[in-house]
Write a structure and sequence with these properties.
Layout: H1 2-15, H2 18-25, E1 26-31, H3 42-49, E2 54-58, H4 75-88, E3 91-96, H5 111-124, E4 130-134, H6 146-165, E5 169-173, H7 178-188, E6 193-198, H8 199-204, H9 209-216, E7 221-225, H10 242-252, E8 256-260, H11 272-287, H12 304-320, H13 327-354, H14 358-381, H15 386-396, H16 400-411, H17 417-434, H18 440-460, H19 465-478
Parallel strand pairs: 1-2, 1-8, 2-3, 3-4, 4-5, 5-6, 6-7, 7-8
Helix pairs in contact: 5-6, 7-9, 9-10, 12-13, 12-15, 13-14, 16-17, 17-18
């Protein structure tokens, strides 16, 4: 019987798809402090939205304090974090002592208690095996200053031995190349210390990442910060050859976590979802399997150029929500594109039927539009909050609601709250019709109809719109 199960296991291993093997070998995450969620519960939900497998969780800020500002020292708080992570299927892949990016390890006499605090947190987060300890705060001279280097080596040896006793490993972040890192590890003499490899550091040394990793060796790499300095997304960075890097890591037999730390597009450096969503997607497309979209694009039988145009049009809405490069964004974009396809089909059918029975064609068109209209809201609501759905509708109708509302408020500063509310109600009603319209011209015609209603309403309320408009133009000219 044992032999049977052994054969079964071996057969399944042979037959297992490459994508499944890749999922086991590589996992992709982001650094919580870089997505502006340092030790915040929201980091897990955001990581999920970005399509991550997990998170590099920070120990909290350090500054001149003797201990990290670590709220997870509290068992109850740590339990909430762990339950939240589990409920979302997000793994804590590493715990970072990022405070040492700015603080000097040789000047923190509490270094062992700081490490112990990190190890305790790792246990609370599910037995995390890898910690990150950057040496950036120790200055630029520690590698060549014999006295300072000796002190760093001593302290890292002690930290490494403490980590080893706890069944963990501390990956240090250094500015060194493979040769320098190997020499440093040899001096430290602790299996509890490895290298938390950085693409950025290797590029700044003017070296090829794949060649440098080969020299360093798989056993010395704890985890990888798989990003460059800010400037471009990974997919656009010619200095980061991800397919070659994956091929190298495959050949080395390495497996583990790839964390996105930077590689933000500087033209939108604060747009967390766009930057990290894009980079996570790129890494998962190369190293792992990107989640299969739940919603299928109904493009079969349609002209390729037309499909590309419609998807691009739909992407304007997901760009506005900063979710284009996330799994959620892909599904939302597809829902919007499918709606455009559906509207096109409805109006094509109407035009075809008009040739034989115009009245029936219009009735059938109205019936299909009615069902399509409410189905669209329902489909979006699976992925978006009500205010996000509102934003999608605004983008699809050229922001006419906001532009028109703001124009009326600026033109007539004396509008009451009641009048403003009524204007907004009618504009949103117009938008609900416009979103079903067959062309941009028809959409604007619908808004035009409601603008007329608003003007009549304001006139009845005693406003002289001609005079109000003239005064508005004067104010604009004076500005």
């Amino acid at each position: 019987m044992k032999q049977f199960f052994l054969y079964l296991f071996l057969a399944l291993t042979v037959l297992m798809p490459d994508t499944m093997m890749a999922q086991e070998r590589y996992q992709v995450g982001v650094c919580d402090w870089m997505i502006l969620k340092r030790q915040k519960l929201g980091a897990f939900d955001l990581a999920k939205q970005l399509g991550c497998d997990g998170l590099e969780l920070d120990m909290g800020s350090l500054g001149q304090r003797e201990a990290f500002e670590n709220q997870l020292r509290d068992d109850h708080q740590a339990e909430i974090f762990k339950r939240t992570a589990d409920s979302l299927g997000i793994t804590v892949g590493a715990v970072a002592m990022s405070g040492f990016y700015a603080q000097d390890l040789t000047k923190k006499d509490t270094y062992l208690s700081l490490a112990a605090d990190c190890f305790d947190t790792m246990d609370k987060m599910g037995g995390v095996k890898v910690a990150f300890l950057p040496l950036g705060g120790s200055g630029n001279d520690w590698a060549t200053n014999k006295t300072k280097r000796a002190e760093i080596v001593k302290r890292l040896h002690e930290i490494g031995e403490a980590a080893k006793q706890r069944g963990k490993r501390v990956g240090i972040g250094t500015p060194l190349d493979a040769k320098g890192n190997l020499k440093l590890l040899k001096e430290i003499k602790s299996e509890g210390i490895g290298i938390f490899y950085s693409f950025q550091a290797t590029i700044e040394n003017g070296l090829d990442i794949s060649e440098d990793m080969k020299r360093l060796g798989a056993k010395n790499i704890c985890a990888i910060h798989a990003s460059n300095t800010d400037g471009k997304w990974l997919r656009d960075d010619s200095l980061v050859n991800l397919p070659a890097i994956k091929q190298t890591l495959d050949a080395m037999g390495w497996s583990g976590w790839l964390f996105v730390e930077r590689s933000r597009n500087t033209s939108m450096v604060r747009n967390v979802k766009m930057n990290y969503g894009n980079n996570v997607r790129t890494l998962k497309e190369v190293f792992n399997s990107y989640p299969t979209p739940e919603v299928a694009l109904k493009s079969e039988g349609r002209d390729e150029a037309y499909v590309k145009t419609i998807v691009g049009r739909a992407e304007k809405a997901t760009d506005e929500l900063s979710i284009t490069w996330t799994p959620k964004g892909e599904n939302v974009r597809t829902i919007i594109a499918n709606r455009y396809f559906e509207l096109n089909d409805i109006y094509e059918e109407r035009d075809s039927l008009k040739k034989s029975d115009k009245k029936m064609a219009e009735a059938l068109c109205d019936s299909r539009l009615y069902r399509s209209h409410f189905a669209f809201d329902a489909n979006l609501s699976k992925y978006l909050k009500p205010q996000e759905i509102e934003r999608v509708k605004d983008v699809m109708t050229y922001d006419v609601v906001k532009v028109t509302y703001d124009a009326h408020c600026e033109m007539i500063p004396s509008l009451t709250e009641e009048e403003k509310a009524q204007i907004m109600i009618w504009l949103k009603e117009a938008r609900e019709f416009a979103i079903d319209a067959e062309s941009s011209k028809k959409k604007h015609e619908m808004f035009g109809k409601y603008k007329g209603r608003i003007n009549n309403y304001l006139t009845k309320r005693g406003y002289n719109l001609t005079k109000e408009r003239e005064e508005w133009y004067k104010r604009i000219e004076n500005k």
